[in-house]
């Protein structure tokens, strides 16, 4: 399943927050969205997953016209791991994950044995199987983040959008979560702050600055010290990690 975004602009009040963005995630690619705080990454993602209405533009998930389709139709194909997940009601972790099954059910349809099995498997994948009965509100930030990922996994989507999915996670779970989503073998679009993790896991990057796409390409093509200076206003050197051969970034104090 491919994601195509054309000419997408979002304004809030009189402010143009996202301007004429075009991007593409081809079949089963892991595409990263990077850029400084406030450049419009979350706003762009929210407009793709229908939380914010764009001023203009098109979003297609293969043949599905996302902006003109109902949330129920879109959520059968598209899983979302958003940034903030506080709840006023107290659900258990398993109940939260079961919500991922909603798009696949009719109105008032009960949870079937198969749904429970899918929920158990999703919690197992994020190492929270024994937390099924725990109150979601009592979980740590990192545990909540993993429950929200499990909910998206239970949805069994064909495409996933993730807004800073490694937020709150220690290094073990940052690596584990990125590995889990990569192994899903579906199209992924993720806003990421850690540039070396983005370089390690993503097939392709879009760099945003002031609401626009500033550059795009494969990580090793895009992540130059010049681009990091222009976009993030930080001096650095790019190198190959001698142990892992991954792209490394050495930042210098300003
Ligand atoms: N509802 C709103 N009202 C006013 N301004 C908003 C609103 N939502 C977002 N903005 C502004 O739009 C800009 C882009 O915000 P957005 O959250 O998309 O950035 P981001 O790139 O995801 O940032 P971060 O990396 O800090 O999460 C920011 O300046 C933000 O203050």
From TrEMBL:
Sorted keywords for this record are: ATP-binding, Nucleotide-binding, Transport
Q: Does the keyword Glycosyltransferase apply?
A: no
Question: Could you state a single Gene Ontology molecular function term?
Answer: ATP binding
Zinc in keyword set: no
Question: Sorted alphabetically, which InterPro entries does this protein's record hold?
Answer: AAA+_ATPase, ABC_transporter-like_ATP-bd, ABC_transporter-like_CS, P-loop_NTPase
Domain ABC transporter residues, every copy:
3-235
Q: What SMART domains does the database record attribute to this sequence?
A: AAA (SM00382)
Protein's name according to its UniProt entry: ABC transporter
């Amino acid at each position: 399943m491919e994601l195509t975004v054309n000419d997408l602009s979002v304004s809030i009040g009189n402010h143009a927050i996202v301007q004429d963005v075009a991007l593409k995630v081809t079949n089963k690619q892991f595409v990263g969205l990077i850029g400084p705080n406030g450049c419009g990454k979350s706003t762009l993602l929210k407009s793709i997953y229908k939380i914010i209405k764009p001023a203009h533009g098109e979003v297609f998930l293969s043949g599905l016209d996302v902006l003109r389709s109902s949330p129920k139709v879109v959520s059968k194909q598209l899983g979302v791991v958003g940034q903030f997940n506080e709840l006023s009601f107290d659900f258990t972790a398993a109940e939260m994950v079961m919500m991922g099954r909603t798009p696949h059910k009719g109105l008032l349809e009960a949870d079937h044995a198969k749904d429970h099995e899918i929920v158990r498997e999703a919690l197992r994948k994020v190492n929270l199987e024994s937390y099924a009965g725990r109150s979601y509100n009592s979980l740590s930030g990192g545990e909540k983040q993993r429950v929200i990922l499990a909910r998206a996994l239970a949805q069994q989507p064909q495409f996933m959008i993730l807004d800073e999915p490694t937020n709150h996670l220690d290094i073990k779970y940052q690596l584990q979560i990125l590995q889990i989503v990569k192994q899903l073998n579906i199209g992924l679009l993720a806003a990421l702050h850690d540039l070396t993790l983005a370089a390690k896991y993503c097939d392709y990057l879009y760099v945003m600055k002031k609401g626009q796409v500033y550059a795009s390409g494969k990580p090793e093509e895009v992540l130059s010290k010049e681009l990091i200076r222009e976009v993030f206003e930080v001096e650095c050197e790019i190198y190959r990690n001698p142990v892992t051969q991954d792209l490394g970034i050495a930042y210098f104090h300003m």
